[in-house]
Amino acid sequence: MSKQKKGQLWTRRQAIWLVTGLTGSLALDACTQKQSSQSSQSTTSTSAARVSAALGASPWIGNTPLYIALEKGFFTKRGLDLKNNIFSSSLDQYAAFSAGQLQVTGAAAIDAVALASREPNFRIVMVFDASRGADGILARNKIASIADFKGKEIAVEIASASHFFLLRVLEQAGLTEKDVRIINTTTDAAAASYQAGKVDIAVTYAPFLQKVNQATKDGRVIYDSSKTSIVIEDVYLFNTKFIESNPTAIQAFVDGIEEGKKFLQTNRKEGLAIAGKQLQLTKEAVEEQLQGVELPTLEKNREMLGNPNSNIYLGKHLEDVAKFLVNQKIIKEVPKDLAKLLEPKFVQVA
Questions:
Q1: 3-state DSSP assignment of residue 46
Q2: How many helices (H) and strands (E) does the chain have?
Q3: 149-189: per-residue pLDDT in tens?
Q4: Residue 93, CA distances (Å) to 55, 140, 347 in order
Q5: Which CATH class is domain 17-131+232-347?
Q6: Residue 341 banded pLDDT, cuts 50, 70, 90
Q7: CATH of region 135-227
Q8: Closest CA to 168 of 232, 234, 111, 230
């Protein structure tokens, strides 16, 4: 895996159409990945039976509690020997998961829907982060509101989470995609085009959002994910058969993540340092970038995964995302029973 500069944010989003074309033939040893070992600080397991599992994840700020749990042995002491395979390619990561080489993987919700359109042999057991300012839209000062986007060119990566975010923002202003002119470009290139004055509007996310905004005098972040209920979240997926055979291991995983969150709160400097080591970021950069994401509590997870009457219920969002992917001709039809992908029993509050 290539080295990243200090202070640079690891990103995990890639073009969604790659997911739908997975063949499942890629092997772990063919992927760009490395394995995180458990810390020597692991304590003796309280469970007689130990379970081994392989996790695949892209380096990402929202995985901070995971990194802490691995380093401090929070999974090991609960009887779960978790091997973290770090992928630089989401395509490789999802292929390994589909091939059964990984029992758990981190994924954007939009990617989970695309995977479900092929083979829904997994369940979402936890929402581990949600964007709260990390995603946003840059616009010149002459553009007073979202309504003024009508007829304008907008740089955004088609069929990505950013594209979905843009269409929902347009909808709130009474506009549709037909009212604007989309320029399909990668997220970093969209930000660069805006900074260079080639476009007046660009949709991007951290760190490009903040860096370009600071460097551009004629413009600002006109809208970001902290101002909306639009959901952009990442989830942990577990293989269905593994869940059925090893429910205690899933609970150990969720409880380990929760202990990682608590450690971050009570031992801030050490927690930031652990994440910084994994992400090759300074502690200051980790702290800054954590401000752009929410790490949902167990209570909120329970509502998102198990309460169809809640306005933050993930099942409704998955339906919206699926319709978006159909409209973009990424998947042929909305997968059946998307709500069945949600497994809330492991996030019950004691």
A1: coil
A2: 13, 12
A3: 999 999 998 878 889 899 989 999 999 999 999 999 988 89
A4: 9, 38, 25
A5: alpha beta
A6: very high
A7: 3.40.190.10
A8: 230
